[in-house]
Structure formats: structure tokens, C-alpha cells
Amino acid sequence: MTGITNVLIAGLGGQGVLTASDLLAFSAFEFGFDVKKSEIKGMSQRGGSVSSDVRFGKKVWSPMIPPCEADYLVVLEPTQIEPNLFMLKEGGLLITPKEIDLNKLPGKQTINSALLGALSLFLPIPVEIWFKVMSKIFLNEKFEKNKVAFLLGCDSFVKKPVNVSIQNNHL
User: Fold this and answer.
1) pLDDT band of 171, cuts 50, 70, 90
2) Cβ atoms of 88 and 164 closer than 8 Å
3) Which residues contact 32 (CB under 8 A, 6 or more apart)?
4) Torsions phi, psi of 116, nearest 5?
5) Contact, 36 vs 71, CB < 8 A?
């Protein structure tokens, strides 16, 4: 993989946005990429918007994704699509909970792992590395539940690229 991969993860406080971005960043690092990460918490403790930029590649200089340059936008809460869509580049991929069969999740708090499973289909990071990192973040039963959710995301995601036109961006 050449260049830099830009992933924006967005949701509401308490949904696991920061945990998801940690899993992605640590997995990319474990695979050998240079990784930079930043987060915007806002009113996260009151259910407000939370987002995290994760950038990885051979060499990454800045943790912030420039507008219209996110390769992937992973949204845990549908209300966060519109405020973050301007970050997605033309031809970028939007990944949302509607791609996952939520009734099959081992718990609603595992949606972040399911969406990472869907994202993993487009990244060069092997599943073994994801699980190695996941086992360090989640212990025992939580690890098993998040592993099941991750695999569910891998199995149920259908690629649905979103074509973003410049006039629809909030720039």
C-alpha cells in the first residue's frame, strides 16, 4: 500500500468512537505503518458529537485529515453522517450501521467492532493483527463479543461507495 490512508470515525459520546479509533490505530501500527491520530470530543459526556481522525502509511506527518480527503468515513450514529460527510473524498467509502444486521450483534455496544470489521475488508491489515490488538483492549468475555461483532461486520458488509460532489460539501 502506498500513500496515506485516511479514516474518520464519527459518532456520539459513549458509542465507542475513541475505542474504535484506538483499535484501528494500534492495528495499523502493529502491521508496521506510521500512524497519527487525533480526536474531537466536544460535548461527548452529554451524548454530543465525537470524531477521530486516523491516518496511516509509510510516513505520516499530520494527525488531521484535510477536508475532502478521508478515504473512509465510519459513522456509528446516522445523525453524524451529514456533519462529517464533507470530509469524505470523491469516491470515498461511507460505512454505517445500516450495513450490519444489528439483531445479530452480541450487544449494542459492539457496533464499533462490527463497523471496523466492515472497514477491514478494504485495508491490508490481516484479521490476526486486529484480534491481537483487540485482545489487549478487551478482556475475556468482552474480547469474545467484540471478535464476534468484528466477524459479523466482515460477513455482512456490502460495498456501497458514496459519490460526494463538491457542491454538497460544507466548505
Assistant:
1) very low
2) yes
3) none
4) -65, -35
5) no
